[in-house]
Design brief:
Elements (H helix, E strand, L loop, with lengths): L4 H4 L1 E8 L2 E7 L7 H12 L19 E7 L7 E8 L6 E2 L5 H4 L2 H7 L8 E9 L5 E8 L1 E3 L2 E3 L9 E2 L8 E2 L1 E6 L17 E4 L3 E7 L5 E5 L11 H6 L1 H17 L12 E6 L7 E6 L10 H11 L19 E5 L2 E10 L6 E9 L1 E9 L6
Parallel strand pairs: 2-3, 4-6, 15-16, 17-18
Antiparallel strand pairs: 1-2, 1-21, 3-4, 4-5, 6-7, 7-12, 8-9, 10-11, 12-20, 13-14, 14-15, 16-17, 18-19, 19-20
């Protein structure tokens, strides 16, 4: 790394991955020391500032994300992907969670940077998610080569294009197949050992603590005096609700073995209600303090796995699909279909399958210049 990085800049690709947007870097282009790296990323993203006016961040947690990608030494993976959530108005960088939306762009980025050779037609990249050690395989269109270099087709062939709610238009499908997500942060799909727990914070309320790639706490909307169809802005403005959810989050995290999460972004809090538009369940997902305008990939996989067993919070609200059919989660801007199968019995639940379709797009590729001073 050059000493005058403010002058030389850093090679960067800005990409939309799913319903998020982030800055993608090759690990070798960033400082090796995590503390130095994180300080640099704060300046690149324009944090702390609620508008992030002096950096790449988009003034929301969903657009203040970073992917750090490198060749993997793991025989089961092609590349390593470290996800970093960067604060917006608070100066923090955390690696305590994965991000499945940003993951949607990692395979394409790896091919574009020459970290993985492309295959004419479709390329599959096995990605080790460094945050938790689980593996995902991303498959996407690479229909042609230019001077021997594979070309990623973000638009995709016509028969391959899909629309995802929360993103305008259509783009080429990126299939994501996950391995080892169950309990990846907590050690078990239901880390408390039960599909439902009672928390008295301050009044008794039943929750489900679940981790299928994104540690989450599921709560019935009706138990909070909500319909479950509120707009994200209305939920964010309800200070009494936010205070109660934070108290519940801290208590649930202790039960889940996550310890003190007062400075962490996990577990997520997800409010559930019955479906209104033909899906399986309605969701409102907290990030944990802002409200997601849709729902994250790993969050969706976790909610689906969490409500499938009888006795779990939300099971009685859900219209559970037939085996093999997609589990459709309704969210503030539409729906998200995932493929999740769970089997077993109390104390030994197993996730048999976790998969989803996303899209991604390269927005720019070039050099980013960090703000020179904190």
């Amino acid at each position: 790394m050059a000493a005058d990085i403010e002058t030389t800049g850093v090679r960067c690709m800005l990409m939309r991955g799913g319903t998020s947007k982030g800055a993608y870097f090759v690990a070798a282009d960033l400082p090796a020391d995590p503390a130095v790296r994180d300080e640099l990323l704060l300046r690149i993203m324009g944090t702390p500032d609620p508008r992030q006016i002096d950096g790449l961040g988009g003034a929301h947690p969903l657009t203040s994300k970073v992917a750090v990608v490198s060749p993997s030494a793991d025989a089961d993976a092609d590349v390593d992907y470290l996800f970093l959530q960067v604060g917006v108005d608070e100066a923090f960088v955390t690696d305590r969670q994965n991000c499945g939306n940003i993951l949607a762009g990692v395979g394409s980025f790896a091919v574009e940077r020459g970290l993985v050779p492309g295959v004419a037609g479709r390329t599959s990249v096995r990605i080790r998610m460094v945050n938790t050690g689980s593996i995902a395989t991303a498959t996407f269109a690479t229909p042609s080569f230019a001077d021997g270099v594979p070309v990623v087709d973000y638009d995709g062939p016509a028969e391959d294009r899909i629309a995802i709610d929360g993103v305008p238009g259509e783009a080429g499908a990126v299939s994501l197949d996950f391995e080892g997500t169950a309990g990846s942060s907590t050690g078990a799909l239901f880390p408390t050992g039960s599909v439902a727990d009672e928390l008295a914070v301050p009044d008794p309320i039943t929750v489900t603590c679940v981790d299928n790639g994104m540690p989450s706490v599921l709560i019935r909307a009706s138990d909070l005096g909500l319909s479950g169809t509120e707009e994200p802005s209305a939920l964010e403005e309800d200070q009494e609700l936010k205070a109660r959810l934070e108290a519940l989050r801290l208590a649930a995290a202790e039960r889940m073995g996550l310890g003190d999460v007062s400075e962490a972004t996990v577990p997520k809090m997800v409010i559930l209600s019955e479906p209104r538009h033909g899906g399986a369940i309605t969701t409102r997902s907290f990030l944990p303090h802002r409200v997601h305008t849709s729902i994250g990939v790993l969050g969706a996989l976790t909610v689906a796995a969490g409500v499938l067993p009888e006795g779990a919070v939300g099971h009685e609200l859900a219209t559970v699909p037939e085996p093999g059919a997609p589990f459709v989660l309704e969210h503030p801007t539409g729906h998200f279909d995932v493929d999740v199968a769970v089997s077993g019995e109390p104390g030994s639940w197993v996730v048999e399958r976790s998969a989803a379709l996303r899209t991604a797009r390269k927005i720019f590729d070039g050099t980013v210049y960090p703000r020179p001073r904190p």
